[in-house]
Specification:
Number of domains: 2
Oligomer: single chain
Largest sheet: 9 strands, mixed
Radius of gyration: 19 Å
Distance between the termini: 34 Å
Structural class: alpha/beta
Shape: globular
CATH architecture of the largest domain: Alpha-Beta Complex
CATH superfamily of the largest domain: Spore Coat Polysaccharide Biosynthesis Protein SpsA, Chain A
């Protein structure tokens, strides 16, 4: 019988910190989970480390190695392999609260249904401070778009999704020479189907690494313009407000200029807005190519 939850961890050369995640899973008060590790082409001792943990047989572990595809490629592989009802991504530099699995499974057993996408819960720093804001106590369920747009929550949140929905949503595209596409692509599409249950409980402790995608967003932006352009088209189409659509459009334009695609207006899902804000997109493009370190927009770790 399959467990209820798959905890999946994409990892690339993170053997030096992966033990924190492992140890937190060993401490879980419920064993109703499987740990799926997607090794995205690591060249360190990740495989040997995981094989040792498998021999210890303290928790159920499934390990899969693939050539490096980037975070989104590792997520694609995870969603192909997951067979449990629910899944949650815990990054290789993060770790779960000791009762996280118990909280997630019991909350879903009590409140979950096919009309819901999953659960949104809280992330915290390693010292226990909630990242950003708590979730609205007046709501039982909402989409991510509503939470960040209408209710103005801030900071990363932990997302637990129904696997069936993730499998039904198209995979992240892989572009030759690129290693990043914002994970929010799938979240936006799922937002159009059903909301997430709100659980104001800490289930994950986040330790941002200097080599992580969140800390190197300007580098990601420059190195992966096709991935960002693809994402911006989806974000433009489903933007909850015109202000958000304008923001996504400006970023869409700058990404296309990075790859010298001057047909971006014809290819845009919002052609008039794209035409209207082309000057702003060009200014952002010029700013990006002349800036070594910068924060692009309101970037979250799971974006």
């Amino acid at each position: 019988m399959n467990p209820t939850l798959t905890v999946f961890t994409p990892t690339f050369n993170r053997a030096y910190c992966l033990n924190k995640c492992y140890e937190s899973l060993v401490r879980q008060t419920s064993q109703d989970f499987l740990w799926l590790i997607i090794d995205d082409g690591s060249t360190d001792n990740t495989r040997l480390l995981v094989e040792e943990w498998i021999r210890e047989d303290k928790i159920k572990i499934s390990y899969y190695y693939q050539d490096n595809q980037g975070m989104h490629g590792a997520h694609n592989t995870a969603y192909e392999k997951i067979e449990t009802e629910l899944n949650v991504c815990i990054d290789s530099d993060d770790f779960m609260s000791d009762d996280a699995v118990e909280k997630i499974v019991s909350f879903w057993t009590k409140h979950g249904s096919d009309l819901l996408a999953g659960i949104v819960a809280l992330d915290a720093t390693p010292t226990g401070e909630i990242i950003g804001t708590t979730l609205p106590t007046s709501l039982t369920a909402a989409t991510l778009t509503e939470l960040y747009g209408k209710y103005k929550i801030k900071g990363d949140k932990k997302l637990v999704y129904r696997t069936k929905l993730m499998k039904e949503t198209p995979p992240y595209p892989l572009f030759v020479g690129e290693k990043y596409c914002p994970l929010s692509y799938k979240y936006i599409l799922i937002d159009q189907k059903c909301p997430l249950l709100i659980m104001n409980e800490i289930v994950c402790y986040v330790d941002y690494q200097t080599d992580g995608s969140s800390m190197n967003m300007i580098h990601q932006y420059k190195k992966n313009p096709r991935g960002f352009s693809f994402f911006r088209k989806v974000a433009m189409k489903y933007a909850p407000t015109y202000k958000e659509r304008v923001r996504e459009t400006i970023h869409y334009i700058s990404s296309n200029l990075l790859i010298r695609n001057f047909h971006y207006i014809a290819e845009s899902p919002c052609k008039f807005t794209t035409f209207l804000f082309s000057p702003a997109g060009w200014l952002l493009y010029l700013y990006i190519i002349n800036t070594e370190r910068n924060t692009i927009g309101n970037v979250r770790k799971n974006t």
